[in-house]
Description:
By secondary structure, the protein is mostly helical. The chain is built from ten helices and two strands, in the order αββααααααααα. The relative contact order is 0.16.
Amino acid sequence: MAGASAMTGEQSEILLLLEQYCSKRSRQTSTCRNQWKKLMSGERFSSTVPTVCTEGPVLSNQKAPSIFSTYKVMTLVLPDRDGAGVQSDDSPSRSHSAVAERLVEINKSAPIPEVVVEDQDETIRKLVELMITFGDDINMKIHQDPVLQEQLSNLSYDTFQKLTFSVQNLVQSGPAAESEDQIQQQKISWAFEVTSRMSVITVVQRRRVLSYGDQYIQQHHSAWIQEHGGWDEVFDVD
């Protein structure tokens, strides 16, 4: 059964990458928010190791913030407590972490324009618009819509697939990429981003979303990745 690897003992490489990606995106949001609260309270940090993260989107010349637009980059100085939070170069997951980091970078550098979403499926149209307009606040907005909550509580793979495909199609509506390879990289990064955004919606089981993301990438992108040398090669990871 497609996507079954996410539910068995051995995790697929794609699922491991999805978990790394979601973890990085989550830390970017929570770390920045928490540390800026401490900065505002006057707390000082002893570490000299800077951490660069993004605190969601910020307004550029648009009417509303969007994860598909400009990110505000901040350098924070975090406390160093016995090396906590510092990943060793010898970590078995270093390659996966590097690929996930590259996917995050591609996602930030490949904004999708805020456009009128035309989709016959009302649920898909609404979800795409929420992602474009509210970004990291999508969970809060969904909780303000009982009908959408009910629909998402029974999220199917078919709905997830249509949603991801709709978002990926908007990549081609944005600034022209230099090559077909870049378009494919951007689309893959958005498959990861959609999975990440959906995984934080509390009315949907996170494990189910990750399984759907795994299945989608296996079906739509795995062959292209393998044809081009694998994840490390495609995303220039040494």
